[in-house]
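Quick one, tokens below. Sequence please?
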């Protein structure tokens, strides 16, 4: 029997929540949610649902992953219908594997409900395709933050030579180092690069620049929300490549 659901809440805009996610939210007894989940999405849950904040954010108090797994198992074994609500998609930098392993270890049935990840939300907001025939034939999702802090151990040369679009999650704090590694690995300093803060939300901002100039632009913009970094030739847009900040002016 399935009584645990690992659900992707999408990038933030409640309108981007899937119908299946919405249906399950309304039937949940308890919701364990991340800090990036928009409050408007939590408000869609049924009245009886207990909402438990198990969020993790850089530089703030965080619930250890082991504690989240224990709570997930505890609630499920108590017979509760549990929704584990994660920002974006649960299978993309959502540490879902650890929670799946914990559930499997206790013989607890579960289901995964995908969500729209921040990369596609950012591309849609920018009206830019992450892939492009003859220009960007591959797409790479990377983390910009290592498990022990600092830069992760990517193969910078291979990524630079791939010729595809790079999307870096959790990379705003390490962006200067990321840019330096890519340029050292052979990437042109003029490679188009865009930072998108709060993708899909009314507070969304984007900064279009180059891989060499974007770190300074992001620092000056003082981004505080979750910020995605996009790099690649498919992102070239002469009209917005000046490093200026573009905010959302209207949300339908």
């Amino acid at each position: 029997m399935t009584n645990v659901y690992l659900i992707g809440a999408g990038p933030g805009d409640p309108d981007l929540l899937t119908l299946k996610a919405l249906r399950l939210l309304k039937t949940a007894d308890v919701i364990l949610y991340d800090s990036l989940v928009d409050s408007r999405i939590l408000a869609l849950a049924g009245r009886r649902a207990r909402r438990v904040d198990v969020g993790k954010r850089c530089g703030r108090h965080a619930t250890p992953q082991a504690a989240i797994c224990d709570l997930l198992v505890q609630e499920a074994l108590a017979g509760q219908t549990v929704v584990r609500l994660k920002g974006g998609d649960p299978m993309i930098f959502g540490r879902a594997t650890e929670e799946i392993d914990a559930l499997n270890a206790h013989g607890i049935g579960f289901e995964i409900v995908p969500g729209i990840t921040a990369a596609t939300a950012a591309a849609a907001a920018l009206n830019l395709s992450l892939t492009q025939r003859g220009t960007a034939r591959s797409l790479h999702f990377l983390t910009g933050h290592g498990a022990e802090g600092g830069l992760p151990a990517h193969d910078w040369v291979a990524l630079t030579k791939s010729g595809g679009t790079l999307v870096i999650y959790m990379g705003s704090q390490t962006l200067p180092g990321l840019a330096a590694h890519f340029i050292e690995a052979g990437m042109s300093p003029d490679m188009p690069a865009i930072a998108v803060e709060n993708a899909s939300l009314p507070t969304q901002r984007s900064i279009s620049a180059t891989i060499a100039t974007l770190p300074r632009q992001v620092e000056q913009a003082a981004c505080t929300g979750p910020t995605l970094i996009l790099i690649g030739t498919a992102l070239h847009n002469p009209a917005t490549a000046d490093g200026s900040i573009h905010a959302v002016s209207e949300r339908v």
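The chain has a mean pLDDT of 91. The radius of gyration is 19 Å.
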